[in-house]
Amino acid sequence: MPKPLNIAQEVRPHFPAVTDDFIFGDNAGGSQILRESVDAISDYLLTSNVQMGGGYMHSVEAAKRVEKGKEAAAVLTNVEGGPSQIVIGSSTTQLASNLGHACALAGKTHGLFELNDEIIISAAEHEANVGPWVRLAKELNLTIKYWLPSPLPNSESPFAIGLNPADLEPLLSANTRLVAFTAVSNLLGHRTPVKDVVEIVKSKTGARAMTVVDCVAYAPHGHINMQEWGCDAVLFSFYKLFGPHLSCLALAPWSPLATKSHSLGHYFHPQAVSYKLAPGGAPYELQVGCYPILPYLLSLGDGEGGTASEKQLAIAFERIRVHERLLSERMLAYLLSKEAKVKGVQVVGPHSSEDRVPTISFVVVERASQHGNRVIYKKRMTSKDVVSKFDEGQKIGIKYGHFYSTKVMPCLPLDTSIIPDNLVFDKSNAWQPVAEDDGVVRISLVHYNTLEEVDEIIEHIRNVLSEL
């Protein structure tokens, strides 16, 4: 059992914005930034803010410092091939779009995709890992299939849904060329067994299908390990992992996504992925600010810092997970209580802290109708109204909505939900559900949050529900 995190001494001193005056409960939208990242950005701008590629000392130093951002990303993802397999861009949406566009161009010239190929997309995705593949399928006349969230075992609630690998298997075939799925749903909070999914995909497709894993909602809570998982690509956002507003795409060097994707950069640039998939690059100073994330996490791995080892990261994230499990258990204990249930509270996603991260969503509903064995619910109190009550006090920051996971909402038993009978689309006549803007109430915590803060959030929810 790892040593418990000392939040007051080991964690909070690194986050100047995190104080006792305000509770940050919208961390899945963007975490607070490390003091060390801000210092690194400032120091770069003040001491080495020059163009790279020159032989003079300031330019040489600038290049070294910028490269360290990619070095950190390579360790954080454990990508084979190191920094050369890292692409840094402004957002995961932008990087995934670049990758999809590069694949579309390659499909026409390099045979990356062929006639009759199929793409499977999880319906638990943020749109960032959906739209690029839908556009690709449309351009190359491919087939889209959706892997839907389904009821989780050991739960009677129809709102307790998540991705089940058993539901993926029937969708796979010799024609499957790419599977895009999330390591953690940013709305459900459910942990997907990534390694198991990748193994199933390889087994069922003869290792022909590529796997693209969205780790944005996973990265603050768990260790991304590409070499252990065996996936082709992962995406994550530094700004949700305690750094500046940049994101990362890591590509395995053996993947066709790395070797066959078409360059989007200048024709005279190298064909390395960091050039061909990030035309124009990312702001130098922000890349420099990404590096301090690594030594900070390593310091949680052995208490002192030290070398960039997978073992240290594993220990750090296990310590984080133990603490976050306590946060989840405290929050779930109230939201699943009889007191909350009689008010209409339904937790969306796993009801067990073992199967989730502390990104916890809920709705306030009542029965509306019944269709066969399926009970349909309607909002008793809108998610917007719940969050508005929080905003009135200006002491706790949470949000409501679909959080760009528009295909999750129709999978819930709400009177606004509609799922087509057939979720296989030729020529990319893809499923575009109407976004239900009211969505869910989402409370998203990370390791710098405390049990005392959870208690305050619970008390606010209790006060809001008292009006019903």
UniProtKB/TrEMBL annotation:
Organism: Naganishia liquefaciens
Pfam families per the UniProt record, alphabetical: Aminotran_5
Domain Aminotransferase class V: 24-456
Record's protein name: Aminotransferase class V domain-containing protein
